[in-house]
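S.,

Sequence below, as promised.
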Amino acid sequence: MIIKGTAGSPGVLSDFASVVTNLEDARRQKSGGVIVTDRVGPEWLDVLVRCSAVVTRYGGVASHAATLCRELKRPSVVGIEDAIAGIKAGDLLLVDGDQGTVSIVEQESKKNESR
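The prediction came back faster than expected:
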């Protein structure tokens, strides 16, 4: 499944999704992974330095998520309206910040079924 958004910060990366609904949840996540959330503000900087990429439901090229990710050299795709609904925690994602796409390479539920 390929989800189209806006290219926020360049780079292509594959990693597991960490779906978070607020900053407190994000701070509890272990390092690494793709942060998937509604929006990101400047107070998220401590989280963003530990993640591998960011996908947000809201925002554009001038959003905090896009700007901070460009500064930190993290790929980001912003403005994906169904980011939270379509991506589940643990899904393996391919984030393409150059093209503004997020591909669900493998769903967490399918990984559990094959075990």
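The mean pLDDT is 91.

Coffee later?
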